[in-house]
């Protein structure tokens, strides 16, 4: 049976979780066609797992990560959304220290909702311009 995205699902192919992952990957590729980081305006890329949130500020022209932050080594205070806000503040602080004020937001194919939106709002409040 073919789905609307031209991907053929076979029995035992992984089911709903595999479909969700491939859908996010497709959305991310579609987004990356339009979004690229430069030296003047690097890309703020978000990666999310069930437990943690990772953020990097990347200059795609050189292929270099300029600044990063995550919940991985952060003290677990509050729920995941509160931790995402803290990571947003942290990445904004580190980016300003590195002389970065403007970024292009790459949500990584995730919906702009919940943890992703909380991170972006906190980064804006921290001084980054999207």
List keywords for this structure.
4 strands, 3 helices, four-stranded mixed β-sheet, 130 residues, alpha+beta
How much of the polypeptide forms β-strand, as a percent range? 15-25%
H/E series, N to C?
Answer: HEEEHEH
Strand order of the largest sheet: 3-2-1-4
Span between termini = 41 Å
Number of strands: 4
Describe the structure.
With 130 residues, this protein is of the alpha+beta class. Helices cover 36% and strands 18% of the residues. The chain contains 3 helices and 4 strands, in the order H-E-E-E-H-E-H. It has a 4-stranded mixed beta sheet with strand order 3-2-1-4. Helix 2 runs parallel beside helix 3 (115-125). The chain is globular, with a radius of gyration of 16 Å.
List the helices and strands and how they pair.
Blueprint lengths: L14 H18 L10 E6 L4 E7 L4 E7 L9 H18 L6 E3 L8 H11 L5
Parallel strand pairs: 1-4
Antiparallel strand pairs: 1-2, 2-3
Helix pairs in contact: 2-3
Short description:
It is built from 3 helices and 4 strands. By secondary structure, it is of the alpha+beta class.
């Amino acid at each position: 049976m073919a789905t609307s995205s031209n991907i053929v699902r076979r029995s035992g192919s992984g089911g709903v979780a595999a479909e969700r992952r491939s859908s996010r990957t497709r959305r991310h590729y579609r987004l990356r066609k339009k979004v690229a980081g430069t030296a003047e305006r690097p890309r703020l890329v978000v990666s999310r797992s069930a437990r943690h949130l990772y953020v990097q500020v990347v200059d795609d022209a050189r292929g270099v990560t300029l600044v990063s932050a995550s919940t991985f080594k952060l003290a677990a205070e509050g729920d995941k959304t509160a931790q995402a806000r803290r990571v947003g503040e942290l990445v904004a602080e580190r980016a300003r220290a590195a002389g970065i004020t403007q970024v292009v937001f790459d949500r990584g194919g995730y919906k702009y909702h919940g943890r992703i939106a909380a991170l972006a709002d906190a980064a804006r409040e921290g001084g980054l311009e999207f």
